[in-house]
Protein backbone atom coordinates (compact mmCIF):
# COMPACT_ATOMS: atom_id res chain seq x y z
CA UNK A 1 0.00 0.00 0.00
CA UNK A 2 1.12 3.50 -0.72
CA UNK A 3 -0.76 4.59 2.43
CA UNK A 4 -0.58 2.52 5.59
CA UNK A 5 -3.54 4.26 7.23
CA UNK A 6 -6.80 5.68 5.87
CA UNK A 7 -7.34 9.44 6.01
CA UNK A 8 -9.82 11.04 8.40
CA UNK A 9 -13.06 11.66 6.53
CA UNK A 10 -12.35 8.84 4.04
CA UNK A 11 -15.05 6.26 3.28
CA UNK A 12 -13.79 2.69 3.52
CA UNK A 13 -15.16 -0.81 3.05
CA UNK A 14 -14.97 -2.94 6.18
CA UNK A 15 -15.71 -6.50 7.24
CA UNK A 16 -17.22 -7.04 10.68
CA UNK A 17 -14.96 -9.41 12.64
CA UNK A 18 -16.44 -9.40 16.15
CA UNK A 19 -18.88 -7.64 18.45
CA UNK A 20 -17.90 -7.14 22.07
CA UNK A 21 -20.40 -5.38 24.34
CA UNK A 22 -21.07 -1.98 22.83
CA UNK A 23 -18.15 -2.03 20.39
CA UNK A 24 -18.00 -3.37 16.85
CA UNK A 25 -14.59 -4.48 15.55
CA UNK A 26 -13.96 -4.52 11.81
CA UNK A 27 -11.18 -5.17 9.35
CA UNK A 28 -10.63 -2.21 7.01
CA UNK A 29 -10.30 -4.19 3.80
CA UNK A 30 -7.98 -2.01 1.70
CA UNK A 31 -5.63 -1.29 4.60
CA UNK A 32 -5.64 -4.64 6.41
CA UNK A 33 -6.05 -2.80 9.72
CA UNK A 34 -8.54 -3.08 12.52
CA UNK A 35 -11.06 -0.34 13.19
CA UNK A 36 -13.69 0.12 15.88
CA UNK A 37 -17.25 1.45 15.82
CA UNK A 38 -18.82 2.66 19.07
CA UNK A 39 -22.53 1.96 19.53
CA UNK A 40 -23.36 5.65 19.13
CA UNK A 41 -21.79 5.53 15.65
CA UNK A 42 -23.66 2.43 14.49
CA UNK A 43 -27.05 4.10 14.01
CA UNK A 44 -28.91 7.21 15.20
CA UNK A 45 -31.19 6.95 18.21
CA UNK A 46 -31.41 4.21 20.78
CA UNK A 47 -30.12 0.78 19.76
CA UNK A 48 -31.77 -2.16 21.47
CA UNK A 49 -29.90 -4.91 19.65
CA UNK A 50 -26.67 -3.99 17.85
CA UNK A 51 -26.94 -7.18 15.77
CA UNK A 52 -29.95 -5.70 14.01
CA UNK A 53 -27.43 -3.46 12.23
CA UNK A 54 -24.20 -5.46 12.04
CA UNK A 55 -23.38 -9.15 11.95
CA UNK A 56 -20.11 -11.08 11.79
CA UNK A 57 -18.54 -11.16 8.29
CA UNK A 58 -20.92 -8.49 6.97
CA UNK A 59 -19.43 -5.96 4.52
CA UNK A 60 -20.21 -2.37 5.56
CA UNK A 61 -19.15 1.08 4.36
CA UNK A 62 -17.78 3.31 7.13
CA UNK A 63 -16.49 6.84 7.53
CA UNK A 64 -13.10 7.32 9.20
CA UNK A 65 -13.53 9.63 12.20
CA UNK A 66 -10.13 9.56 13.91
CA UNK A 67 -6.76 7.94 13.25
CA UNK A 68 -4.09 7.52 15.93
CA UNK A 69 -1.08 6.14 14.07
CA UNK A 70 1.07 5.77 17.18
CA UNK A 71 -1.46 3.48 18.83
CA UNK A 72 -2.83 2.09 15.55
CA UNK A 73 -6.33 3.11 16.65
CA UNK A 74 -8.91 3.88 13.99
CA UNK A 75 -12.38 5.09 14.98
CA UNK A 76 -15.13 4.61 12.43
CA UNK A 77 -18.77 5.51 11.91
CA UNK A 78 -21.49 3.54 10.17
CA UNK A 79 -24.36 5.97 10.76
CA UNK A 80 -22.58 8.89 9.04
CA UNK A 81 -22.53 7.13 5.67
CA UNK A 82 -25.34 7.94 3.23
CA UNK A 83 -26.93 5.43 0.87
CA UNK A 84 -25.18 7.11 -2.05
CA UNK A 85 -21.77 6.87 -0.36
CA UNK A 86 -22.43 3.22 0.50
CA UNK A 87 -23.22 2.46 -3.14
CA UNK A 88 -20.04 4.17 -4.29
CA UNK A 89 -17.86 2.25 -1.80
CA UNK A 90 -19.46 -1.07 -2.77
CA UNK A 91 -19.04 -0.23 -6.46
CA UNK A 92 -15.31 0.36 -5.90
CA UNK A 93 -15.15 -3.00 -4.09
CA UNK A 94 -16.77 -4.77 -7.05
CA UNK A 95 -14.36 -3.07 -9.46
CA UNK A 96 -11.39 -4.13 -7.33
CA UNK A 97 -12.62 -7.75 -7.32
CA UNK A 98 -12.98 -7.66 -11.10
CA UNK A 99 -9.48 -6.19 -11.45
CA UNK A 100 -8.01 -8.85 -9.16
CA UNK A 101 -9.70 -11.55 -11.22
CA UNK A 102 -7.98 -10.32 -14.37
CA UNK A 103 -4.57 -10.69 -12.71
CA UNK A 104 -5.41 -14.14 -11.32
CA UNK A 105 -6.63 -15.46 -14.68
CA UNK A 106 -3.39 -14.48 -16.39
CA UNK A 107 -0.76 -14.74 -13.65
CA UNK A 108 -2.11 -17.72 -11.69
CA UNK A 109 0.51 -18.71 -9.07
CA UNK A 110 2.56 -15.59 -9.84
CA UNK A 111 -0.28 -13.31 -8.70
CA UNK A 112 0.71 -12.71 -5.05
CA UNK A 113 4.35 -11.61 -5.55
CA UNK A 114 3.42 -9.37 -8.48
CA UNK A 115 0.46 -7.97 -6.55
CA UNK A 116 2.79 -7.03 -3.70
CA UNK A 117 4.99 -5.06 -6.11
CA UNK A 118 1.98 -3.31 -7.65
CA UNK A 119 0.68 -2.23 -4.23
CA UNK A 120 4.02 -0.67 -3.37
CA UNK A 121 3.25 1.98 -6.01
CA UNK A 122 -0.54 1.97 -6.40
CA UNK A 123 -3.32 2.11 -3.77
CA UNK A 124 -5.40 -0.51 -5.59
CA UNK A 125 -5.32 -2.92 -8.52
CA UNK A 126 -8.19 -0.97 -10.07
CA UNK A 127 -6.15 2.23 -10.14
CA UNK A 128 -3.13 0.38 -11.49
CA UNK A 129 -5.10 -1.12 -14.38
CA UNK A 130 -6.77 2.23 -15.01
CA UNK A 131 -3.34 3.82 -15.44
CA UNK A 132 -2.24 0.90 -17.62
CA UNK A 133 -5.19 1.56 -19.92
CA UNK A 134 -3.89 5.10 -20.42
CA UNK A 135 -0.26 4.03 -20.83
CA UNK A 136 0.33 0.39 -21.75
CA UNK A 137 4.06 0.67 -21.07
CA UNK A 138 3.43 0.88 -17.30
CA UNK A 139 2.64 -2.81 -17.11
CA UNK A 140 6.05 -3.86 -18.47
CA UNK A 141 7.61 -3.11 -15.07
CA UNK A 142 5.59 -5.88 -13.41
CA UNK A 143 4.91 -8.71 -15.86
CA UNK A 144 6.38 -10.39 -18.94
CA UNK A 145 5.49 -9.20 -22.42
CA UNK A 146 3.34 -12.29 -23.00
CA UNK A 147 1.37 -11.79 -19.76
CA UNK A 148 1.05 -8.07 -20.47
CA UNK A 149 -0.63 -8.74 -23.81
CA UNK A 150 -3.10 -11.15 -22.17
CA UNK A 151 -3.93 -8.67 -19.40
CA UNK A 152 -4.46 -5.84 -21.88
CA UNK A 153 -6.77 -8.02 -23.94
CA UNK A 154 -8.84 -8.91 -20.88
CA UNK A 155 -9.00 -5.24 -19.94
CA UNK A 156 -10.65 -4.46 -23.26
CA UNK A 157 -13.22 -7.20 -22.69
CA UNK A 158 -13.98 -6.87 -18.99
CA UNK A 159 -13.40 -3.35 -17.69
CA UNK A 160 -15.85 -0.78 -18.93
CA UNK A 161 -15.84 2.79 -17.75
CA UNK A 162 -18.44 3.29 -15.03
CA UNK A 163 -20.67 6.30 -15.47
CA UNK A 164 -21.81 8.08 -12.31
CA UNK A 165 -25.04 10.05 -12.52
CA UNK A 166 -26.28 12.84 -10.27
CA UNK A 167 -29.80 14.12 -10.79
CA UNK A 168 -32.03 16.91 -9.53
CA UNK A 169 -35.63 17.90 -10.12
CA UNK A 170 -36.25 21.64 -10.46
CA UNK A 171 -39.65 23.27 -9.98
CA UNK A 172 -39.44 26.61 -11.81
CA UNK A 173 -42.23 29.18 -11.91
CA UNK A 174 -42.55 32.81 -12.97
CA UNK A 175 -45.35 35.35 -13.30
CA UNK A 176 -43.66 37.35 -16.04
CA UNK A 177 -45.46 37.67 -19.37
CA UNK A 178 -42.54 36.14 -21.26
CA UNK A 179 -42.12 33.43 -18.66
CA UNK A 180 -41.42 30.61 -21.12
CA UNK A 181 -38.51 32.52 -22.65
CA UNK A 182 -37.15 33.47 -19.21
CA UNK A 183 -37.13 29.85 -18.04
CA UNK A 184 -35.67 28.63 -21.34
CA UNK A 185 -32.82 31.15 -21.16
CA UNK A 186 -32.04 30.13 -17.57
CA UNK A 187 -31.92 26.44 -18.48
CA UNK A 188 -29.79 27.01 -21.58
CA UNK A 189 -27.22 28.84 -19.46
CA UNK A 190 -26.40 25.60 -17.63
CA UNK A 191 -23.51 23.65 -19.17
CA UNK A 192 -22.33 19.99 -19.02
CA UNK A 193 -25.75 18.64 -18.01
CA UNK A 194 -28.80 17.13 -19.70
CA UNK A 195 -32.10 18.92 -19.05
CA UNK A 196 -35.52 17.42 -19.73
CA UNK A 197 -39.02 18.84 -19.41
CA UNK A 198 -41.19 16.72 -17.09
CA UNK A 199 -44.36 18.78 -17.23
CA UNK A 200 -44.99 22.21 -15.74
CA UNK A 201 -43.30 23.35 -13.60
CA UNK A 202 -40.80 20.48 -13.34
CA UNK A 203 -37.51 19.87 -15.14
CA UNK A 204 -34.89 17.18 -14.59
CA UNK A 205 -31.20 18.07 -14.61
CA UNK A 206 -28.74 15.18 -15.04
CA UNK A 207 -24.94 15.28 -14.78
CA UNK A 208 -22.81 12.32 -15.81
CA UNK A 209 -19.11 11.51 -15.44
CA UNK A 210 -16.69 8.63 -14.85
CA UNK A 211 -15.77 10.40 -11.60
CA UNK A 212 -18.59 10.63 -9.00
CA UNK A 213 -17.19 13.86 -7.54
CA UNK A 214 -17.05 15.40 -11.00
CA UNK A 215 -20.67 14.54 -11.83
CA UNK A 216 -21.79 15.94 -8.48
CA UNK A 217 -19.81 19.13 -9.14
CA UNK A 218 -21.33 19.52 -12.61
CA UNK A 219 -24.84 19.22 -11.17
CA UNK A 220 -24.22 21.77 -8.42
CA UNK A 221 -22.68 24.23 -10.88
CA UNK A 222 -25.63 23.89 -13.25
CA UNK A 223 -28.16 24.43 -10.46
CA UNK A 224 -26.23 27.49 -9.27
CA UNK A 225 -26.29 29.01 -12.77
CA UNK A 226 -30.03 28.37 -13.23
CA UNK A 227 -30.82 29.71 -9.76
CA UNK A 228 -28.84 32.87 -10.42
CA UNK A 229 -30.59 33.42 -13.75
CA UNK A 230 -34.05 33.05 -12.13
CA UNK A 231 -33.23 35.11 -9.02
CA UNK A 232 -35.14 38.22 -10.12
CA UNK A 233 -37.64 36.54 -12.43
CA UNK A 234 -39.43 33.86 -10.46
CA UNK A 235 -39.21 31.00 -8.00
CA UNK A 236 -37.13 27.84 -8.12
CA UNK A 237 -37.20 24.78 -5.86
CA UNK A 238 -34.53 22.10 -6.02
CA UNK A 239 -34.78 18.43 -5.04
CA UNK A 240 -31.60 16.43 -5.51
CA UNK A 241 -31.97 12.68 -5.96
CA UNK A 242 -29.57 9.83 -5.12
Structural overview:
37% of the residues lie in helices and 28% in strands. The chain is of the alpha+beta class. The chain folds into three domains: 11-81, OB fold (Dihydrolipoamide Acetyltransferase, E2P); 84-158; 164-241, 2-Layer Sandwich (Alpha-Beta Plaits), CATH 3.30.70. Helix 1 packs antiparallel against helix 4 (145-158) and helix 5 (179-188) packs antiparallel against helix 6. The protein starts with 10 loop residues before the first strand and ends with a strand. The model has no long low-confidence stretch (mean pLDDT 91).
Shape: flat
User: How many β strands by DSSP?
Assistant: 9
The CATH H-level homologous superfamily of the largest domain: EIF_2_alpha
Radius of gyration: 23 Å
Sequence of strands across the biggest β-sheet = 1-2-3-5-4
Beta-strand content estimate? 25-35%
The percentage helix is: 25-40%
Main sheet overview: 5 strands, mixed, barrel
Q: Treating each run of at least 4 consecutive H or I residues as one helix, how many helices?
A: 6
What is the CATH C-level name of the largest domain? Alpha Beta
Distance between the termini: 32 Å
Return residue spans where pLDDT drops below 50 for at least 5 consecutive residues. Answer: none
**Category by helix and strand content:** alpha+beta
* Corresponding CATH architecture of the largest domain: 2-Layer Sandwich
* Topology-level CATH name of the largest domain: Alpha-Beta Plaits
Average pLDDT taken over every residue: 91
Domain count:
3
Amino acid sequence: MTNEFPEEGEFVLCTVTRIMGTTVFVNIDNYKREGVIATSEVAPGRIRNIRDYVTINKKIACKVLRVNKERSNIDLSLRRVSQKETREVLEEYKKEKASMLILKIVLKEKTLPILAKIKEKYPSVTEFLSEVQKNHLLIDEFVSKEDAEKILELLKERIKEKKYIHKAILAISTTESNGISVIKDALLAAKNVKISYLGAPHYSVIAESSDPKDSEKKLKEAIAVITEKMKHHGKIEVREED
